[in-house]
């Protein structure tokens, strides 16, 4: 019987032209697993792929609800909080007493905070990750449908009825993800993440460029320091709910902590992983904040109070239609990669559990080498468990995406429930436990203050999400075909 790690070791030895001998430590890490090859650049690519979703194109709407002062301040504050708590989390990768690696976020929580916190973390993390995967399926299909709509509007005029069903696109995306889901683990996602990161830069730049072009052409709409104004079409209560959702959108746009430990586990052991990960955090968050600022501010300057929920799929722009189409293609390619980045922790958790439960089952543990190409240039290993379970995983996510036409509000609620514990609470509590920060010391008080403020924001965002979901449910017609 050949284990997954042994198979991976043999593959990498063959690729490097090395003879494999029993007991050798060639290409092995300090824990006996295949040597990691990740760098600050691959980690930064993973972060950018995870953090810059197509939600960047909705930031103009968020800034419009808050106005120039509060909107820009919120972007800066949450980028700083995310960078700080991510640095705390990076220090939790290895246990301080033994130096043992924590391979997953949940394992870091278990070793630092105990079993009860481990279970609570798992429930929040996995619900959040699966919700993101379903949301990405919906968002990617909307972008694919937007390409068809854009071409229709170009040919028939902007007032034409160009209804398009998203379901065929969801099915097509699901089929593609079934194949990509056979990528064995996080360590083999580097190239896919690099491509996805490039795509995120591309569509963000296009959306930002189109908004900037509208502003400098003198067609930008009126903006204010306080955002959308209360009046005939907007009550004070509705504005408050919108502000809550905007706070949530901006805060959750920076969320990637739930896969930070998994990303860090791809890094080489030298130099030390926490130092490299902190550099990757700075690069990823700084790059993200720059794009968020430009997209949010230029989008608000271009559309004012009428900023659409998505600059590209909400048809804030119709022309040039080919550029809008190109941007939506980039969104789809990016989300295809991001889907895998968020799936791998779930894949790894289930498969590790299955191996623990049935260590002698060939169905679970036996690896089969698959070669693609005449010269066997591309090789990977898989098991029957991985092949079947990952396929069912993608099929279920696709079916749920097709069954929930208003899932974006449910996703916002999942994000509201997941942001505070995963990005703020657990990193801070693990840091306090590791560094033995004294209760009521100045550092302890400062950390708990950050914790409390973020909890309030998450609670407000959750309330806003529930209110938006309630409106969707009241307006929902079961037999109406959703575009």
Topology record:
Blueprint: H1 4-15, H2 40-51, H3 59-90, H4 105-113, H5 115-156, H6 167-180, H7 190-216, H8 236-252, H9 260-264, H10 273-303, H11 321-357, H12 362-365, E1 368-372, E2 378-382, H13 384-403, H14 407-435, H15 442-475
Antiparallel strand pairs: 1-2
Helix pairs in contact: 2-7, 2-10, 3-8, 3-10, 3-14, 4-5, 4-14, 5-6, 5-11, 5-13, 5-14, 6-13, 7-10, 7-11, 8-14, 8-15, 14-15
Descriptive notes:
- With 483 residues, this protein is mainly α.
- The chain is built from 15 helices and 2 strands.
- The protein has helices at residues 4-15, 40-51, 59-90, 105-113, 115-156, 167-180, 190-216, 236-252, 260-264, 273-303, 321-357, 362-365, 384-403, 407-435, 442-475; strands spanning 368-372, 378-382.
- The chain has a two-stranded antiparallel ribbon with strand order 1-2.
- A hairpin with a 5-residue loop joins strand 1 (368-372) and strand 2.
- The N and C termini lie far apart (50 Å).
- Residues 1-24 and 478-483 have low confidence and may be disordered.
